[in-house]
């Protein structure tokens, strides 16, 4: 069983200042950690997240605003074990992150726009311990990093049918060094309803504290950042009340981060073989009066193999209908079959459909009631894992209910 609460607060003043506050808390009983222990102990997991963000326009200029933004995030997770009437803290993790940024927008004219900015981030692991051995032990060694990023984006419309966007970003990590990543997008419009878009970009992902830790058994101090280069070509088409997008994509992953079994028969994080992924995505949207329908389909032509832990096909459907003060939403997601390696034997996890439902009722402009059911039909399904004790995969959450109130003042 699981219960939780969410609180969101947004305040905007004179279009120059905005603040967002979010609080989330979850409590889970019967939390499954290891298949071999499930009959011997009751596991509980409690998590909490707090987030505050603000944005302020330093110059009250709608054409060329200079914007300051900052945020602070805290997360905490406590995992406990109740065994033979004794409570044992298995792990206690607390993290936080400060972020400050400055963005300068400049509009030369209707055809030429420029964005320049910088950001500083400081993620920290404030507490990371367990006492599985009977004494408190720190489970993460690396606990602090500073990241300074600068970026520039130039958008220029050459003519009514050609527009280009060029961007570049440089990030300096105190623990992993410097990385520069470009991005380009070219849009060509044959007519107002038919457009083609070409996009290319590079991205960089530094290992997490847990992945690079020298204390936790999975950590690897020699692990390197993961990089990816992605090329996309899209065809956007508009009809009378239908919009479609067909996208072909190709991604090249270098130094991909994953886990493997080492010579000591221990699973550790490491950089694995390079991976190329090719696929296509189709998106269709239609609106008829108060009814909106959207569908997306993704097919991976090439991806990881043996085991293939990523679905080759996914499909989503979203139906939304508004009737007066009522709003009804039904959305479904199909996930194709995936594989799992169990002691050198490949097993198959069947594909599945998940359906969710949301109903909103506006009492007035200030007050809205919300109800949501996730996994509407209580579907039993499993995720692939490399943890050998979960021989049939990790069981996922069943039907959950959510009730909330939105207040505008």
Helicity, in percent?
Answer: under 10%
CATH class of one domain: Mainly Beta
Q: Which stretches of 5+ consecutive residues score pLDDT under 50?
A: 35-39
In the CATH hierarchy, the third-tier topology of one domain is known as Porin
The main sheet comes to:
20 strands, antiparallel
Question: Could you say which structural class the secondary elements and strand pairing correspond to?
Answer: mainly beta
Structure description:
The chain has a 20-stranded antiparallel sheet that branches. The chain has one helix at residues 209-212, and strands spanning 2-13, 17-29, 42-57, 66-83, 86-109, 112-130, 137-138, 147-157, 162-173, 177-191, 194-205, 226-238, 242-254, 257-261, 267-271, 275-288, 291-302, 313-323, 326-335, 338-342, 345-349, 352-362, 367-374, 382-383, 394-395, 400-407. The chain is an all-beta fold and 409 residues long. It has a domain at 1-139: Beta Barrel (Porin). It is built from one helix and 26 strands. Helix content is 1%, strand content 68%.
Structure described in brief:
This protein is mainly beta and 409 residues long. Helix content is 1%, strand content 68%.
